[in-house]
Write a structure and sequence with these properties.
about 130 residues; alpha/beta; three-stranded parallel sheet; 6 helices; 3 strands; elongated
């Protein structure tokens, strides 16, 4: 598995501090256009993807909701996500799609994430449709 690029990695590559990298990626007014452009270009080149867990765990407020959808294709996932994000309590949550297999171990891992505070909860959709 390929290692995920972090703010620290971009910091080492660019010579800017982690704080500057973060501010540049969030278009902070304190950071110059030139610096923002350079940082964003590096982030793109190295396929940087924000780590939402790290962001919210920093503040000890998990606002990540797992959405488990069976793989059989019975559900319209974009429609489900749209409906979930209309729920006032969940408007400020990040939704993570878990494609759970039909095995207890996979479900147990996700439940352990909740217990450890990595995610705030999980919405599990079940299907009556037989798998192919």
């Amino acid at each position: 598995m390929k290692k995920r690029v972090t703010l620290k990695d971009i910091s080492k590559i660019s010579g800017f501090s982690v704080s500057t990298i973060s501010k540049a990626l969030h278009d902070d007014a304190d950071i110059s256009y030139k610096t923002k452009t350079k940082v964003k270009k590096l982030a793109s080149i190295y396929n940087y993807v924000p780590n939402f867990l790290a962001k919210y765990l920093k503040y000890e407020i998990p606002n990540i909701i797992g959405v488990s959808v069976p793989k059989n294709g019975e559900f319209d996932i974009p429609k489900i996500v749209k409906e979930i994000t209309c729920i006032p309590l969940l408007k400020k949550c990040e939704l993570v799609n878990y494609q759970l297999e039909d095995n207890k171990v996979n479900v147990d891992v996700r439940m352990q994430n909740i217990i450890e505070g990595d995610i705030a909860g999980i919405i599990v959709l079940f299907s009556n449709k037989a798998r192919d």
